[in-house]
Amino acid sequence: MAFTRGYGVALFAVGTALGAGAAQAADLTPFSFGTNWVAQAEHGGYYQAVADGTYEACGLDVTIQAGGPQVNGRALMIAGRLDAYMGGNMIQPWNAISEGIPIIVVGANFQKEPQVVMTHPGRVSSMEEMAAEGLEVLTDDGANLSWYKILINQYGFKEENRGVYTYNSAPFIADENKAQQGYVTSEPYAIEQATGWAPDVWLLADYGYIGYSTTIEMMKPFVEENPELVKCFVDGTAKGWYNYLYGDNSAANALIQNDNPDMTDGQIAYSIEAMKRYGIADSGDALELGINAMTDETMKEIFETFVELGLVAGDLDFTAAYTTEFVNKGVGLDIKKSLVGE
User: Which residue, 6, 36, 134, 231, is most buried by CB atoms nearer than 10 A?
Assistant: First the structure.
């Protein structure tokens, strides 16, 4: 078996002994994967699969390149400098397809967007009240191209009530008439650590912002030329997520903290608990089909929602931006059953 690299530029042989057990180092195929932010528990499945040898077992030597504010991982992938990239939601791949860029999503780690709006404890009791009270919602620019439009359409929020979020929570902390965006796995913990009070958390996935998240993006020619490599990475990632969420994740956390020394034990523990409590990775389609699951039915629903919001063109062939070839096979469900008895 051979894997094509660099869209046909070079070949790397893979030893025939791979099916019998863990590959020898000389037989492993180098594979570079870029995350979209600094190392954290939200990337835990990848680090777990590196730490426990899951990727190696099917023939890959995976290098994780952490992202950050100055790193454009998607551009690096398009340029052939990364084999895969950890995307956000489906808006970016659909926009890429509309521009003739052959990005394709081969799996979705998360069944729910982790995006939240936070308010001061007890300040409001519903989304409708938040809108009616005119709370200023601090968001980044990306929100106005996605979930804030849902709040406007479904709950009566107003564009003039959207403030600028500069990734500094001090304005929100100081003013109970402000709300702030965040990730359910991160900002609520940071605010509680800074203030001693826990904000009320509104998970947008429960308020109309449906969609797969934390996707695995690759270039379509690369996928077509390397199906066994892609299968190894996607399957290994699913197994990594089950072991990370429900098993011994200490080695993976050590790798995360090596790549991001600012990541604390407390933040990691909070993030893992939040991912499990809110069903970020293990819910929806994944319950029966396995982590990374994607279905045509859900994709169509997501697409139609985004079209209604004016985020993507209605005549776009939305199916061109993803493939279910490598998912929906229940990979890793046996691991979960052995760890938690379900």
Answer: 36
Would you report the helix, strand and coil content of the chain in percent, each value rounded to 5? Answer: 45, 20, 35
Greatest Cα pair distance, the chain, in angstroms, is 65
Residues 6 or more apart from 304 whose CB is under 8 A from it?
Answer: none
| Dist. CA 312–CA 310, nearest whole Å | 6
CA geometry: angle 6, 320, 210, nearest 5 deg: 115
- Residue 33's SS3 state is strand
Q: What angle do CA 259, 260, 264 make, to 5 degrees?
A: 130
Query: Can you tell me the distance from the alpha carbon of 263 to that of 257, in angstroms, rounded to the nearest whole number?
Result: 6
In 3D space, the residue among 28, 46, 49, 51 whose CA is nearest the CA of residue 85 turns out to be: 46
For residue 25, what pLDDT is reported? 59
Cα distances (Å, whole numbers) of residue 51 to 23, 47, 190: 15, 6, 27
